[in-house]
Amino acid sequence: MALWARMDGQLSMAKWMMDVLPPRQGWEAALRKAEAAVKSQASGASTEEALKNVERALAPFAKTAKEFKVLCVGHAHIDMNWMWSWPETVMTTIDTFRSVLALLEEFPKFKFTQSQASVYEIVRKYAPELMGEIAGRIAEGRWEVAASHWVENDMNMASGEAMVRHLLLTRAYMKKHFGLAPEDVSVCWEPDTFGHCATEPNCFARAGVRHVYIHRPGNEHQPVPEAFWWEGTDGSRVLVRNDQARGYNCAIEPATILNVMQAMHKWHGLKTSQLVYGVGDHGGGPTRRDMLMLAEMGEWPVFPRIEFSTSRAFFLELEKTGGGLPTIRGELNFEFAGCYTTQALIKRANRIGEGRMLDVETAAALGAATGTDTCRQADFKDQLDENWQRILFAQFHDILPGSCVRDARTHCHGEFQNAMAFMEAATARTLRAIAARVDTASIRGEMEVLPPSQALFTLDAAGQGAGLGAFEGALSMAHGHGVSADRPFVVFNTTAAPRTENLTVRLWDRHYRETVEAFQARRFVAFDGNGAPLSTQYIGQGA
Predict the structure, then answer these.
(1) At what angle do helices 2-20 and 254-268 cross, to 10 degrees?
(2) How far is CA 256 from CA 114, 251, 260, 284, 482, in A?
């Protein structure tokens, strides 16, 4: 079977060359002679003898065949918690990387490409002994980091700020752990993302991303070419490789090599193409069979040149030869439209998380500007990054769209709650410290100081309301005031625009001799910082 596959692959290459290339002297006669050699096997010749005769007959095609080149990029597509739980994702990542490191040791020409900063963080946390070995392979150029984002994230529902954070946090991570500068990681690897918004090239170009690998270019511009320049709303351009026709989990076989080569030539007249191979979506990556097949087919005389490669190497070559590639502008419209309406809890948590993380940073900036150093502890930035990572992880293209199993959703919401705990505590700590420095006495005068009360009749305690309302990033409404009739509240606007809206406050304490009825009957008045009266409405009592 192997010899027949070798014969068939080379005959297919020769026939394709006859069909699409300018005719060359001797090609037609050579092809007829090769076909006759195949028929001779049916009449008694051995397969080995038939193969020698076929390759001898096809010799006039050999030189031109080797002008075509397929760069083979080994990759492991690891979906974050798609159809399995977080522990399984962790072990999938570790087992995949152990397998890849073993193949890198066994096959000196093999090169590997891996995306997503989150998988490197998994290794750092759960298998740190592998980090040094991976770093060594990166340094020698055989392990390509194609991680410009924290995960292979959704590109439609994520906010613009989150898109930028993916790039910033991942750039910093790669610099810290592997010494890689932005220009060393020029590829955005997003093969399975369900759509691409029109502003992606704007962000990419400013973050040093020049090359984008995709598999789902949407429905808006169909048919989408094998490669193209994608222009953003501000004129920024990135070079895109579209693997829609075959996917990102190919195996090294004669048919896939010919398919990718022929498609690139048909669309663009180019002689170099890229084939992404390796087991996914549950990790695995390239196999020993892929290694052996690639080496074997590389020796076939009438077949394209086949090389172990990185994605960056392909894009750099495409930049030189692809000047005439078409340009696509605007959105690459979404696929799987149902994913934009399902699992609302995940989507709600994502949007709240994106907003509350900005509140934390705004509060920290206000604290620094006012000399309030509650967020200046040594590990505050690390905590901030860690919780941004939690929000960004949940933007994986099978989590935020909701196309994942229940275990993935519960893990996502658990991480959201962890992030919310940090956001609430950090924001409250800073804003309360700033509020404590505001001189409210200059607005309302000195607050009334009541005489000491008898403990037996005291209904007020500083513990009232502990933690009340502290959910999904909202601040606690715990008691924080004395027993004076005046209650100062400092209100913070953490957005970039002026706001006018209703404000709900809770008054926990009351005079120890008052009854509940008297408290309910009391008329409340409110004034702003300039002493101007504000409209008030009593909306209930309890707790």
Answers:
(1) 10
(2) 21, 7, 6, 19, 76
pTM over 0.85: yes
Between β-strands 272-277 and 305-308, what pairing exists: parallel, antiparallel or unpaired? unpaired
3-state secondary structure (DSSP) of residue 153? strand
Reply yes or no on whether the pLDDT at 12 is more than 80: yes
What's the CA gap between 320 and 239, in Å, rounded?
Answer: 11
Residue 341: Cβ within 10 Å count: 10
CB 188 within 8 A of CB 330: no
- In the structure encoding, which two tokens stand for residue 86, read together? 């977080």
Q: How far is residue 190 from each of residues 76, 206, 378, measured CA to CA in Å?
A: 13, 18, 35
Residue 73 bridge partners (DSSP): 276
Report CA-CA distances (Å) from 8 to 1, 33, 420.
10, 14, 60
Percent of the chain at pLDDT exceeding 70:
90
pLDDT band at 538 (very low <50, low <70, confident <90, very high): confident
| Amino acid in the structure at residue 65 | A
pLDDT at 462: 58
Instruction: Kindly report, residue by residue over 398-431, the tens digit of the pLDDT.
Output: 999 999 999 999 999 999 999 999 999 999 989 9
Contact 476, 468 (CB under 8 A): yes
- Output phi, psi for 154, to 5 deg: -60, 140
Instruction: Encode burial over 156-195: b for 16+ CB neighbours within 10 A, e otherwise.
Output: bbbbeebbebbbebbbebbeebbebeeebbbbbbbbbbbb
Convert the pLDDT of each residue in 267-306 to its tens digit: 999 999 999 999 999 999 999 999 999 999 999 999 999 9
Measured between its terminal Cα atoms, the distance across the chain in Å is 80
**299 contact partners, CB below 8 Å, separation of at least 6:** none
How far, rounded to the nearest angstrom, does the alpha carbon of residue 243 sit from its chain's CA centroid?
18
Pairing of β 237-242 and β 112-114: unpaired
| pLDDT given for residue 481 in this prediction | 57
Token digits of residue 417: 């709650």
CB proximity list for 517: less than 8 A, separation 6 or greater: none
User: Cβ of 536: how many Cβ atoms within 10 Å?
Assistant: 12
